[in-house]
Amino acid sequence: MSDQFTHLDSAGKARMVDVSGKQVSVRSATAAGLVRCPPSLVALLRSGDVPKGDVLAVARIAGIAAVKQTPVLLPLAHVIGIHGVVVDVEVTDDGVELTATVRTADRTGVEMEALTAVSVAALAVVDMVKGIDKSVEIAHVRLVAKSGGRSGDWRRGA
């Protein structure tokens, strides 16, 4: 069982994977997601007239801050050095598209950090607009690419 699921020991109990024997390498991961919004809210976001303030700036900062909290939120995630985070937030006809890229030079990857950035940035958008429209929804949070480490490079759809 532990060969198949690295976070389980031979008795099936949860454990943190020992990465101390791995070589440090440059790694990155990109995740994306969407906060689906009705057209009236999209128009308000584009005009910058949301009563709580700059929704996109708050989402960017929330995503960056969230990356640093990943091991607190996910009990089996490793504490690693975060060397770069970019959170892009764009208003589209469907709502707010979010993309986060996280980079490190460490012994384990940053996929969970990228997914956490997008998830918390999306929650920040919802928090900023929920007083205007409660129908907004978070959709399609997913890993879109990763590079580095033993498994090499991966891209969704490639």
Description of the molecule:
The chain is an alpha+beta fold. The chain has a single domain, classed as Molybdopterin cofactor biosynthesis C (MoaC) domain (Alpha-Beta Plaits), CATH 3.30.70.640. Helix content is 28%, strand content 29%. A five-stranded antiparallel sheet has the order 2-3-1-4-5. Strand 2 and strand 3 form a beta hairpin. Helix 2 runs antiparallel to helix 4. It starts with 24 loop residues before the first strand and ends with a strand. The model has no long low-confidence stretch (mean pLDDT 93).
How would you concisely characterize the structure shown here?
This protein has 158 residues and is of the alpha+beta class.
Descriptive keywords:
158 residues; alpha+beta; Alpha-Beta Plaits; 4 helices
* Succession of helices and strands: EHHHEEHEE
Q: How many individual helices?
A: 4
Strand numbers in spatial order across the main sheet:
2-3-1-4-5
Our count of domains comes out at 1
Could you tell me the strand content as a percent range? 25-35%
Low-confidence stretches: none
CATH class: Alpha Beta
Please identify, by name, the CATH architecture: 2-Layer Sandwich
Number of strands: 5
Explain the layout of strands and helices.
Blueprint: E1 25-36, H1 39-47, H2 55-67, H3 70-73, E2 84-92, E3 95-106, H4 111-129, E4 137-147, E5 154-155
Helix pairs in contact: 2-4
